[in-house]
User: Fold this.
Amino acid sequence: MKGSKGSLYDDLKRRILTMELDPDEDLDEVALSERYGLSRTPVREIFRRLEGEGYIEIRANRGARVVPMNHSTLRHFFLVAPMIYAAIGRLAVQNFKPSQLSDLKDTQERFRKASVSSDALSMVLENNRFHEIIGEMSGNAYLQPSLGRLLIDHARIGHTFFRPRNADMRNRLQLAVEHHDGFISAIGAHKEDAVVDLVFEHWELSRENMEMFIAPQGLKADALVGDS
Assistant:
């Protein structure tokens, strides 16, 4: 596959989000150079860019690997995600541009179509893009990088959410689609409190599914200890 730096960058992001590349998987610099028709220098530049965005880690004398997911990172994810999402949502209402709202609607339509056709990989990517746009709406240089890092793990942890195996899971997925419509309406109407309320409803829907099917059993025990 001959390509470009942009193609390599986009493909690696997509493969990490869709779990085509597993957490902790090593990245072969030589193989990627050959596959994309690039020299080693631009491949390393892409690695550094992806490291800065939280997709990969570069280890001295050991090369690059997909950022891992372990007990500690998952625990941190569950603790801080709702706070970041709520802050982003409130700022999005204050700062969004009409063109961004239009992009959000277009992304939601792609997400809706993917949900109807049960295209799990497209749902992962369009859902990720939907929340990424809300981050862009916030216009906050401090929160956006944190949101980007959260969305990487949210996409990877939540894969089972987009592959419903029973009626209850299908109902949850449909509710997630409706939540997206609610975000669009509330943002467009400049209703900060409504967006924040919806953030927590949306998060709870996602959290329950992730804890049920993905999160280590010890995570809930740790959370209970933290609450005591």
User: Anything to note?
Assistant: Residues 215-228 have pLDDT under 50 and may be disordered.
